[in-house]
Fold this protein.
Amino acid sequence: MPKALFWVGCWIAAIALGACGDDEPTPELRRVVTADWLNQSLTVLDYEKLVDGQSDAAGAIVGTIDLSPWEPGPIEVELTPDGKTAVVSVGPAFFDGLPSLVGRPDIPAGGTLLIVNLESGIADQVQTEDVPLGIAVSPDGTRAYTANYGTEGARGDSLSVIDIPGRRLIDEITVGNGPEQVALSADGSLGIVNVVSQGGVRIFQTSDVAGTMTDVLATGDDPSDVCFLDGNDRAVVANTFSFTVTLIDTSDPTSPSVIGDVSLETGVPYGLTYVPSRAEILAPMGATAPGVPTSLIAIAKSEDVLTPAAPMQLAGENFPLGAAADAEGAFAFVAHIVDHELSIIDLATRQTRSIQWLSGPGPSYVAVQP
């Protein structure tokens, strides 16, 4: 099985220095991990360095994991709650059909799922029926769910259930043509997956995925990212070509319903991230024209009303697949594929900055250790 090499020199040096005296132990690293896509790597960064307001990429990067054996490269990544394992989808997303969104790069064929030990750098492959894209990890870190969008030439229609410790495929369920993203409720009992070809989403219970999968609930044109809000009774979906976010009632998971929509007219919505400590949904907005910067909109939820705030302009350009936020709701991160930037956003002050370190298209996605 292929093994990916991981540079851990700085960690080893820190341990060695600590062993030479009675200094206080080195604080445990809190990881931020980026999927670097066509750079064919993961980058592991130090959260504290990223949010200190001054560290550059060189000062924040802890190490790089080489994933070059798997083309075209890692497109999305999610972490287990302990921050020690990454679940990584390798594939083209939808960019092989829309290369202009990311500068028309040459995108190699291929795709698979990897489970990566972030301490050793060892990557294990789990082959799903279709090429995966979106990933959700259970709260206990034992299961992953992947929305298998496929490729332009072989569109996927499946949702996979993965045993993370066992590095094996448990189940595959047909959900409809073009599932892109999947999310779980906070307690892990419910899931939601979008189905692009049918203009909506499906709800399922993780105790019996196939047996509880609902019919498609229509939400809008080109439904993309999905997430649950507080508890299990509300979820949202971004409708990219409708420029809306739809609020869904999932209190009866066997019969979900649409509550209403909110329009986002300052860009193209795709990713959604709920920040419980702020009762806000973060929506990175793709630019509507080349050369136009992206933005991040915080959408407040009060009762069943969604209210978007003024956009926060980001340095990077297209195409942000999502945002990640720390558990405290202090900082958020957005990856920009085209100009190789990672935006760092102070959610309290709305101050933003960015770092750069890659040469090819990426980073494409970012995940933060809780």
The first strand starts at residue 31 and ends at 35. The chain has a mean pLDDT of 92.
